[in-house]
Design goal:
Bound molecules: guanosine-5',3'-tetraphosphate
CATH class of the largest domain: Alpha Beta
CATH superfamily of the largest domain: P-loop containing nucleotide triphosphate hydrolases
Shape: globular
Radius of gyration: 25 Å
Number of strands: 31
CATH topology of the largest domain: Rossmann fold
CATH architecture of the largest domain: 3-Layer(aba) Sandwich
Largest sheet: 8 strands, antiparallel
Structural class: alpha+beta
Strand order of the largest sheet: 27-24-26-25-29-30-28-31
Number of helices: 14
Number of domains: 3
Helix content: 25-40%
Distance between the termini: 40 Å
Oligomer: single chain
Length: 531
Amino acid sequence: MSFLEEIQRRRTFGIISHPDAGKTTLTEKLLLFGGAIQEAGAVKNNKIKKGATSDFMEIERQRGISVATSVLAFIYKDKKINILDTPGHKDFAEDTFRTLTAVDSVIVVVDVAKGVEEQTEKLVEVCRMRKIPIIVFINKLDREGKDAFDLLDEVEQKLGLRVTPLSFPIGMGYDFKGIYNIYGKKINIFSGENKQVVTEGEGVEFTDISVPELDKIIGDKAADILREEIELVTEVYPDFNKEEYLNGDLQPVFFGSALNNFGVKELLECFIEIAPSPQPKMSEERLVDSKEETMTGFVFKIHANMDPNHRNRLAFVKIVSGTFKRNAPYLHVRHNKKLKFSSPNAFFAEKKEIVEESFPGDIVGLQDTGTFKIGDTLTEGENLNFKGVPSFSPEHFRYVNNADPLKSKQLFKGLDQLMDEGVAQLFTLDLNGRKIIGTVGALQYEVIQYRLEHEYGAKCSYENLPVHKACWVDPEDHKNAEFKEFKRVKQRFLATDKQGQLVFLADSEFTIQMTQSKYPTVKLHFTSEFQ
Ligand code: G4P
């Protein structure tokens, strides 16, 4: 297969949802279609179980599983599909944001009864900002839920999307009869049996649903309702247009039940046809096209190994262009150092294995003993730095204190490496050099404490800090008089992040507003990526 064909057959995407909407179930069903697993239940649930929110032993156990499910690849109809796992738990939202920098499209799962939930809103907002093509899958149609049109409205309003349904449910819950596949012009009847088996049935073709045959298949009443609803769909929603979808301007919607493996095939068939192959990616220097022959890639995730005695980690690299070859020398741009990788891992279903070659869109896992941090770029020699792994303001802030004075070296090394992995963010207070850890969820503090002790032999304690938000300060402003005044007055609240950028730690929304109106030329940003 030629290099271009390899690129064109790849689909790298993430599934995002609020916890419990059915992401794991849908992933599993997609793998079943690809023949990558033989039975449902083979993909271990890597979400943190309900009620276990502060059980770090559980987190440790899950960490092992989530290495295996970080990338799930399978082949379907000759397309190589890479699903990048995104943790649903909100305390790990930062991980999900970073993973979104490595996907070419996403599928958003929405629970038919719960509708659009908070976590989904945040994640979709990031996708919208980045113009990532989105397909929506409304799940659990076998249960009573909201009216399909109300749901479509909700998706449009809460997620800020412009939708067009490509399938439509026939009834719901107890009355759920099946799906009309608008895209493929077919009807699929729901039997409620054979839950875990891939149904090979292609559905009954219905290019025209006004014909009386429809009444025979789904009954007079359901047929009349379906005709009315499809008429309304045609009137109200825009026609599907692939270009608009690819530009992030139109989002197709599918309905189904992942658990019952219903509506999933329609979704997958359409997905492989319309979803983008690996896209060009912007670097600080230039736009890099996936079809370029020289290899470029970037680290979007680092996973610590399970063995605490060996601090080796796995760095996940998304290949942006060219062919990644085992044992070839690549430039680690930040260190300006050539490195060779003798055992790059590729991922296939829930296994990982050493590969000789990987192509754009693929993810390779590189053994790492601390050379990589998130956002690092690899090239064949060009000085490139890929953009787009921003830090968002943490939501929790605590001082970190050394609880064992004899182990301060270990503590700092541990903190440094955990931050490179993206577990949390570290700030150093300008005034006195005290270290502050910022996290998205309270859970990370336990993870950090536990891992510092078990992997680095260091102990720490925390002290709460009443900070509402970290605001990155634009360095452009550093020279003017107003900035000097801002710095003098706010001295106690200024810190430096790990990249050396200045950060203002605001204690409330009110403070942010006041500061902005008092020092209008000092620009405050809520992510580290503003230049
Ligand atoms: P998540 O990864 O998004 O967190 O969700 P997951 O797939 O684990 O699904 C959450 C729950 O919803 C699971 O039930 C799952 O079986 C159920 N579910 C998923 N898809 C459907 C569907 O189409 N219809 C119905 N009725 N249920 C669905 P659970 O009881 O929480 O877990 P489990 O004991 O079944 O694993």
